[in-house]
Amino acid sequence: MRSLHPDSGRVGRPFSSRPAFLPEPGPPEPGAVRRFPCGVQWARGFSHTVQEGKGETALPLNANSPIPLYHQLKSDLAARIAGGEWRPDEPIPSERELIERYGVSRTTVRQAISDLVAAGLLYRVQGRGTFVAPPHIVQTLAELTGFAEELRLRGLDPDVRVLDAHDAPLPPEPARALGMAPGEPAWRVRRVVSVDRSPLFVDDSYFHPELRDALSGRDVAGTSFYALLESKGWVIVRGEQRIAATLLDEAAAGLLRVPPGAPALAITRVTFAEGDRPVEWARALYRADRYQYLVELRRRAR
């Protein structure tokens, strides 16, 4: 096999839209094309050699291809991620290991990794390396559901860990939302919710004192807040929700296992019962690398 171009990360003509022809382990099956979330695609049929052992197989890059080397490397790494060679939140090989396995320059490796980070397939942790990003969870804004309840409705099995559940003085913002004075006691619940053993969000809820008996001593980890309230005769009718971008402080970042200053979605909600009575103020901090909102917009008839 020809030696690879030492530093440029590109071979031959400028970038072509033709897919990189990189193989998957196993017998070739001509004509089958696979696509990935980052826009990478590849087809079976390129001759290759394979060594056994997880993480040890390095497929040769084609120095004669018009496809840049970094794009070929990106395609192969994306295929390995999609195939489950590295699980979510597991590290991929280091830059040095990838350079040695693929015989390419550091510039080529860094460009491929940067593209996969931008595409949401990988994330970096300073001083620790590069890790496989868990898949994004997409939520619509069509109806009012609890934060963890929404995950269950999507067929996921969230793990809910309760950090605190007790009476606490109301900070100013929750107090205003609940029509109470700052410092008055309210029932507070703090939780961390994980999916596939990876933290997704931390939420902090304050409930009107009238709801305390309906919630205290209950299974607030395994049951929806709204379901608990409705089982006690409360009728939840609507909510007001604001979504903002924020950066995680050290405490929240530690709970979500990301570096301090990592981006997050801050979702603040006020929930109303019958008679338009505010009964809950809640704020959830979602990892921005794992969560998205989908809003369907329709053109007004003219």
From TrEMBL:
<dbReference type="Pfam" id="PF07702">
    <property type="entry name" value="UTRA"/>
</dbReference>
<dbReference type="InterPro" id="IPR011663">
    <property type="entry name" value="UTRA"/>
</dbReference>
<dbReference type="GO" id="GO:0003677">
    <property type="term" value="F:DNA binding"/>
</dbReference>
<keyword id="KW-0238">DNA-binding</keyword>
<dbReference type="InterPro" id="IPR028978">
    <property type="entry name" value="Chorismate_lyase_/UTRA_dom_sf"/>
</dbReference>
<feature type="region of interest" description="Disordered">
    <location>
        <begin position="1"/>
        <end position="34"/>
    </location>
</feature>
<dbReference type="InterPro" id="IPR036388">
    <property type="entry name" value="WH-like_DNA-bd_sf"/>
</dbReference>
<dbReference type="GO" id="GO:0003700">
    <property type="term" value="F:DNA-binding transcription factor activity"/>
</dbReference>
<dbReference type="GO" id="GO:0045892">
    <property type="term" value="P:negative regulation of DNA-templated transcription"/>
</dbReference>
<dbReference type="InterPro" id="IPR036390">
    <property type="entry name" value="WH_DNA-bd_sf"/>
</dbReference>
<dbReference type="Pfam" id="PF00392">
    <property type="entry name" value="GntR"/>
</dbReference>
<dbReference type="InterPro" id="IPR000524">
    <property type="entry name" value="Tscrpt_reg_HTH_GntR"/>
</dbReference>
<keyword id="KW-0805">Transcription regulation</keyword>
<keyword id="KW-0804">Transcription</keyword>
<feature type="domain" description="HTH gntR-type">
    <location>
        <begin position="73"/>
        <end position="132"/>
    </location>
</feature>
<dbReference type="InterPro" id="IPR050679">
    <property type="entry name" value="Bact_HTH_transcr_reg"/>
</dbReference>
<feature type="compositionally biased region" description="Basic and acidic residues">
    <location>
        <begin position="1"/>
        <end position="10"/>
    </location>
</feature>
<feature type="domain" description="UbiC transcription regulator-associated">
    <location>
        <begin position="153"/>
        <end position="292"/>
    </location>
</feature>
<protein>
    <submittedName>
        <fullName>GntR family transcriptional regulator</fullName>
    </submittedName>
</protein>
